[in-house]
Structure formats: C-alpha cells, structure tokens
UniProtKB/TrEMBL annotation:
This is Transcription initiation factor TFIID subunit 5. Pfam families: TFIID_NTD2 (PF04494), WD40 (PF00400). Residues 64-83 have a biased composition (Low complexity). Residues 127-255 form the TFIID subunit TAF5 NTD2 domain. One of its GO terms (molecular function) is RNA polymerase II general transcription initiation factor activity. InterPro entries: LisH (IPR006594), TFIID_NTD2 (IPR007582), TFIID_NTD2_sf (IPR037264), WD40/YVTN_repeat-like_dom_sf (IPR015943), WD40_PAC1 (IPR020472), WD40_repeat_CS (IPR019775), WD40_repeat_dom_sf (IPR036322), WD40_rpt (IPR001680). Residues 302-313 have a biased composition (Acidic residues). WD repeats lie at residues 384-425, 457-492, 499-530, 541-582, 583-616, 625-657.
Length: 718
C-alpha cells in the first residue's frame, strides 16, 4: 500500500541506500520516468543538493524537471507544471505507467490555474529535433496501414500530436525544423482545423507563444480523444515496439484518452462529434442528472371569452365559467417527473399584472394555429432600412408588441410594433395630482405628450451586441463592447443600472423566462448570472476556452446554455454553477441557441452553417440539419415545438420539421455509454421550406403567441 511504500522509500533514503531505493521505485513504478531508465532522484536531506537530478537529454520524461519538484513534506516530490495534474482517470492496463499527477502522501495534488512559464516549460525535455518528422510520419504510416475499423479512430491523434510536436520544436527554438515539420504535415489535418492552423502557423518563435491565449489553452487543457479499447491497445503496442518515446510522452502528457469497450466508431460517427478546440467531451462530463422538465404553472382563474367583461356585474356569469378553468389549468396539474423541485431556485412572485398577462396569453393560445408539415407559419419580416448605424442585435417582446435594435453606434432603439405608441410616465409633480384609486390609474400615469413610435436610449460607449426584454415588458437589457450590461426602464426610457463585471466586450445577454435573473457572456470566456437587484454577479460559469458568444436560459430557468468560439456548447446548473453538459460537434464558433418548449431538446447553430440537435437528458447529439450556407444567427421553436425556424447570414429563413427530427430517437444504454450516434444521411426530408429575402441577413426570429413567425434583419446593399 502506498503509505507504507513511501515510508520504506524514506527510510532507504535516510540510510543512504540509493540503489535499493531506485530498485524499489522501479518495481513500484512510482515515477513515470522509471520505465525509461531516467530516474529523477529527489533531494536528500543533505544541504546543497539540487532538488531534481538532471535527466539525460533525449530520454526526458516531460514530468521530471517540469518546474522543479519542490521538496514538500518530508522531502517528497511535489510536481509543479501544467494543470492537468488530477490523476488520469483512465482504466489503465496493468503494465503501463501513466502517472499524470502523483498522489502525494495519500492526497491528490490539487490542480492550479496555470502559470504561463510553468505551462510552457513542460515542453523543455525534448527528443532529437531532426527526428520529429520521422516519428510523425512513422505513426502516420502505421495508422494509415491499420485496419479500416481502427484507422478512423486513430486518425484523431494526427491533429493534437501535430500541434504539440510543432509547439515543442518552436519552444525549443528549432525554428527551421518547426517550419519544415509544419509545411510537410499541415495539409493532412482535417479541414475543420484550418482556422486553428492559421493561428499556429504565425507562431514561429518561442516569444510568440507567451502571449498567445489559444495556444496556452491547447497546452493546459488536455485534448480529449474517445477511442475503443482495441484501437488503443493497438496504438500502445506500436509505440512501445518502436520505442517512440517522443510521441508516447505527448500522448501521456497532453492527451486524455477516453477509452470505451465496444465496437470502434466509424469515420462518419467521429466526424459528427469532433472539431472543438479541446477535442470531444469526456463521457463523464454528460452523465450528471439534468432536470429538463418544466415547472408547474401557478393556477388561477382564466376567463375564457371576451364576453366575461360584461358579465362581471351579474353574479352568475363568472361562477359558471369557474369549472371551465380547470380544463385549461389541468394540463399543468401533474408535476413533470423530469422537472426540478418547484423551490430549487428562488423565483420571483407573480404580480397581478403578470397574472393578467398569463390570462391574455392563454386566450391567445386558444386561437393558436397548429403548425405542421401541412400547415406552415406565415412569416412577417421586419427589415431595418438605412440602418447605416449598423444593426448588431434585435429582440422582440413575448407579446410581440415592441421590437428593439442594438446598433454599432452604441445606441439602443425601441419601436412599438402595434398602433399603441410608446409613452413615458409623467413627472413626479404631475403624478401627485392623479387620483390613485381610479380604475384607469395605469393609463393616467402615462404622459401623452411623450408618445412616439421610436425611443432612442443613449448610454453605452461601444457597439451594442445583445438586447433582451424582460418577460413583463417593464425592463430591457443591453450589453456592449464597453464591457457593461445596462438595465433600462421601459416606463421612463432611462437607464436604471450599469452592471460592470466583464472586463472585455459582452457579446450576449438574456433575461430568465421568469424575469429577475439574467445571464451575460463575453470575450473574457465566462458567462455570469445576475439578478436585477444585485451589483455583483451571483454565479460565474467558467470553463469555455474562448469567447462566450451566445447565452440562453432553459424554459425552467434552472439551467443556462452557453455557446462559444471554442466550438462547444455547455449547459450550466444555476443552483451550484456546475457544468452539467458539454456538447461538441460544431466546426465553428456557435452563434445561436434555442431550447424546445418542452425543455427536452436544444438546437444550436454556428458559423459552419449546420444546426445540431441535442437530447439534454441523455447528453447526446440526435440530429444535424444541413442546408444553410453561412452563419446561423437565429433559431426559434414554434410555440408548441412542432417547427424549428433557423435564420442565417445567407439571407434565408428555413423551417424544419421538429416533430419528425425528434421522434423515435435511439437513446439506448449502449448509445449513451459509447456515443455511437447514428444520424440520418440526409436532413432534406426534414426541411419544410426555404424563404429568401432580397438582401437581408436574418438576425432574429420570434414566434408570436398565435404562431406567426416574425423575422428581423438589416438590409445590406452589397
């Protein structure tokens, strides 16, 4: 057992029995480097001995001298260096020493935020620079000649190995070797890594690596590969026979191989899932339970027709309507088995005005059009003409009465879409004259002199990238390049609060479906959860490796989805801030997210022109909709979830059959365990219609309460 071993080793060291100590170490495989014969001896208690014995060049384990093993308690080594120091949780075959993070004295070394120089210094020990091409081409030859079933899986190694070997050459100042290595092999990488390779090709000197965030990420986060056990054994045997330590070191040091038992995956299955900055998600990452069901709606009386207004004076009428109310409220009587507990997170109380709004909503819902392949929605397009200020964000209120545009000239403009003009509240002096008991007090407090179709809100000092109306239409959020999120009152059309938390541009913000909470995401790679009455964020969701480009609340408000330029989508738990899902598969930054109304599914759109569909409960990709030829900036499900609308920079709105896309999904235990997803070859049979605009990229989509589809964008003349 480990404690005893440590004690024995210490005793041997104190008695100066070096040889026995080394033999025991080798037997116990306590150092990853022992197998290769380079034993890093830990300083004895005698003063003046260097902490780490020199490692012969070329043999180097990248661990031993990484940043010096500091004599910790009792002179035991304490590895410093990259943050991948949590023990590697692979089911390891017996004879293999994968010691990424030694367990020290029974406790695991805690992962720390990386210090740049420590992170990069892991590239210190390196093999003969002239042999790198030979190593790589040897592996390439081996993989290309292996059986078809293994080839697709092992080919995933090409890209991460290529990057790490190139960076290692650059870091150790073998510039010409690095250049020739890059030129020889960069053409073999998958097409979806082109943008990353462009960044990589500009890093030609050690100095360039220090400031480059992308590369630092690549260094510190382990690249995850999902490989079947058979393919992994094949690779391991090959590398050990060839004694190809250089590649084996990189595999151990920088990659996380998620091994599964079962059939290897096909090229097509792998292609669907890979492409993000850090490889695929570990299967463990999508195992947590997610309460994706909807919260029970509060119950209150719902008058069903417009005639009730007259009937209110006679006692009889509303009473007759009472029993009917149950038929409307009944569908939410039963608690959804997948719903979170009602009080899992504190939600604001319903005000009387909210209840009235819900009543209106239910009346509208009764007149809602049932959509389907035979009954497609009409689309009403709001084109922003002469928007020379540059339209950068749009939102529409839930009841479709107002539309807001965020512009590059830092203004926020709110329009009324109905004949009802926008009015501000009267001044304090005028308000004091009003009879507060009168029935139409809410009308009287409005100042008719201020009525207009458009209100312009000034306050930001940079382009406005995101806007969001509160569900009760009293507030509006806007976020900007200036690093702030502002809360505006739609009663007075003034700014109430500026939330400062992000240090860089904020790309998106959105109100919770219940109001009060909102989320923002920005260039600083984190999303923040706020409450309107707190200056500081309540939660900070950190984990993305690049900008958080879009944010969305789950319909039950317990979860938040974030899409990022690292090409992944994450789902976060609002209660504890944990990341409960990581979805990989997009080949470009993600710019749109939409939850299905029942809370079970998520649709995501990116610069790769694909819409991917995810089953949140099982953590699986369940569909891929191909058709757009440019970035997808808008996604929205119809009110009952039968149709998914997508809007893109290719000037089209496309409608997809969501019912068919989500029916008879294969989510058996095997699929969930291994991620063997089988997407239909062709998504064209799900496409219900494509609607072109003349020359207007689609930036926003919104289904009205009766299922009319509203779209918005700014006309572009080029």
């Amino acid at each position: 057992d480990r404690q005893t071993l440590m004690a024995v080793l210490q005793f041997l060291r104190r008695s100066n029995l070096r040889e026995s100590e080394e033999i025991l170490r080798r037997e116990a495989r306590l150092l990853g480097d022992d197998l290769r014969g380079s034993v890093a001896t830990v300083a004895s208690s005698s003063p003046g001995v260097a902490a780490v014995a020199a490692v012969p060049p070329g043999k180097g384990g990248a661990r031993a001298g990484a940043a010096g093993s500091l004599p910790g308690a009792g002179g035991r080594p304490r590895p410093a260096g990259p943050r991948g120091l949590g023990g590697l949780c692979l089911p390891q075959p017996r004879g293999l020493s994968v010691m990424l993070g030694h367990k020290v004295g029974g406790g695991i070394v805690v992962e720390d935020q990386p210090d740049v120089s420590a992170v990069l210094s892991a590239y210190n020990q390196q093999g003969d620079p002239t042999l790198y091409e030979e190593y790589y081409s040897g592996l390439k030859h081996f993989i290309e000649c292996s059986l078809d079933c293994h080839r697709a899986e092992l080919s995933q190694l090409f890209y991460p190995l290529f990057v790490h070997m190139y960076l290692e050459l650059v870091y150790n100042q073998h510039e010409s070797e690095a250049k020739s290595f890059f030129e020889r092999f960069h053409g073999d990488q998958e097409c979806y890594y082109q943008d990353d390779l462009r960044v990589l090709s500009s890093l030609t000197k050690k100095e360039h690596m220090k400031g480059n965030e992308t590369m630092l990420d690549f260094r510190t986060s382990k690249f995850v590969l999902r490989i079947s056990r058979d393919s992994y054994q094949l690779l391991k045997r090959h590398l050990q026979e060839k004694q190809n330590n250089q590649i084996w070191n990189i595999v151990q040091e920088h990659l996380y191989i998620d091994i599964f038992d079962g059939m290897p995956r096909s090229k097509q299955q792998i292609d669907a899932m890979v492409g993000s900055l850090a490889g695929e998600a570990k299967r463990e990452a999508n195992k947590a339970k997610v309460f994706f069901g909807l919260l029970k709606e509060p119950e209150f009386d719902v008058p069903l027709d417009d005639e009730d207004e007259e009937g209110e004076n006679e006692e009889g009428k509303p009473k007759k309507k009472k029993p009917k109310k149950d038929s409307v409220g009944s569908k939410s009587k039963k608690q959804d088995p997948n719903a979170p507990p009602q009080n899992r997170i504190p939600l604001p109380e319903l005000k009387d005005s909210d209840k009235l709004d819900k009543v209106m909503n239910m009346k509208e819902a009764a007149r809602r059009v049932r959509l389907g392949p035979e009954c497609l929605p009409s689309i009403c397009f709001y084109t922003f003409l002469n928007a020379y200020q540059g339209l950068t964000a749009v939102d529409i209120t839930d009841d479709s009465s107002m539309i807001v545009g965020g512009f590059a000239d830092s203004t926020v403009r709110v329009w009324s879409v109905t004949p009802k003009k926008l009015r501000s509240v009267k001044t304090a002096a005028d308000l004091s004259l009003i009879d507060k008991e009168s029935d139409d007090v809410l009308e009287r407090i409005m100042d008719e002199k201020t009525a207009s179709e458009l209100k312009i809100l000034y306050g930001h000092s940079g382009p406005v990238y995101g806007t969001s109306f509160s569900p009760d239409r009293n507030y509006l959020l806007s976020c900007s390049e200036d690093g702030t999120v502002r809360l505006w009152s739609l009663q007075t059309f003034t700014c109430l609060v500026g939330y400062k938390g992000h240090n860089y541009p904020v790309w998106d913000t959105q109100f919770s479906p219940y109001g009060y909470y909102f989320v923002s995401g920005g260039h600083d790679r984190v999303a923040r959860l706020w409450a309107t009455d707190h200056y500081q964020p309540l939660r900070i969701f950190a984990g993305h490796l690049a900008d958080v480009t879009c944010t969305r609340f789950h319909p039950n408000s317990n979860y938040i989805a974030t899409g990022s330029a690292d090409r992944t989508v994450r789902l976060w738990d609002v209660l504890n801030g944990n990341c409960v899902r990581i979805f990989t598969g997009h080949k470009g930054p993600i710019h749109s997210l939409a939850f299905s109304p029942n809370g079970r599914f998520l649709a995501t759109g990116a610069t790769d022109g694909r819409v991917l569909l995810w089953d949140i409960g099982h953590g699986l990709m369940v569909g891929e909709l191909k058709g757009h030829t440019d970035t997808i900036y808008a996604l929205r499900f119809s009110r009952d979830g039968e149709i998914l609308a997508s809007g893109s920079m290719d000037n089209t709105v496309r409608l997809w059959d969501a019912v068919k896309a989500f029916e008879d999904l294969e989510t058996d235990d095997f699929t969930t365990a291994t991620g063997h997803i089988n997407l239909p070859e062709n998504s064209q049979d799900l496409l219900l219609g494509t609607y072109m605009t003349k020359s207007t990229p689609v930036v926003h989509l919104h289904f009205t309460r009766r299922n009319l589809l509203l779209a918005a964008g700014a006309y572009s003349s080029q």
